[in-house]
């Protein structure tokens, strides 16, 4: 029996999701939004507890939007907890990352005369990428993207008054810390997964973190946050204590081990957490190490446990 033709392939559709490409002075961004199952397809709801539902903003949306949406919806099924996910990505279709865009967007500016470009997979400095544009990107996020979501995509939902969180991994985790140090009142919870604190010789420690701890908001304006935020910071044990992969050559493993030693993922996170924990700047600081996870796998662990804690389903 000949199989019947199903016709042209159709794109899979996920209920209660929306996406839009918007233009900004920093280029086009892909905005992806999901809201709880059971709400109306147009994003409206008569949920009596809407004021307590957190809104999770994310960078690197191409890589993490659907993962976050799936995590939230499983928790809705199991515990009745809900969340809105708003992810910022790029209009690319051949990769979940856009290195030429995320590098500049997610790395902090520095007072140093020259920003040190990180090395690529080939071990060579990425001198062709212009880093250090996090302040401008944060302005786009705050002044353009968030208002578009609030006023045009989900206009009936009081997003401005609902609890807000920001998630980022790697450079995204670095951006999350930058946001905490420079705009500590914009989000209630900051989730920094495997943050690239090492970037540019740890300039975020010397500049934005120092200004934050000295009483300002990290931007040099000296404005305190209206309320104390929470910080969740996570990393994988194999990010610093690397283990050779079965397919790696000695040379490849040696190069990766060298990078891990230089990046100091665990030590940088622990040291920063220690400084922040002894200050009075945070409502809560939660530091978590994932045993046996590397830089890539720790991202999913952090997203899962970060959402669990955000929704009040994790006491550890």
UniProtKB/TrEMBL annotation:
GO molecular function terms listed in the Swiss-Prot or TrEMBL record: hydrolase activity, acting on ester bonds
Domain of life according to the entry: Eukaryota
Keyword Cell membrane applies: no
A Pfam family annotated for this UniProt entry: Esterase
Gene3D superfamilies: alpha/beta hydrolase (3.40.50.1820)
Biased composition (Basic and acidic residues): 110-125
Family: Belongs to the esterase D family.
Database matches in PANTHER family: SIDEROPHORE TRIACETYLFUSARININE C ESTERASE, SIDEROPHORE-DEGRADING ESTERASE (EUROFUNG)
Name of the protein in its database record: Isoflavone reductase family protein
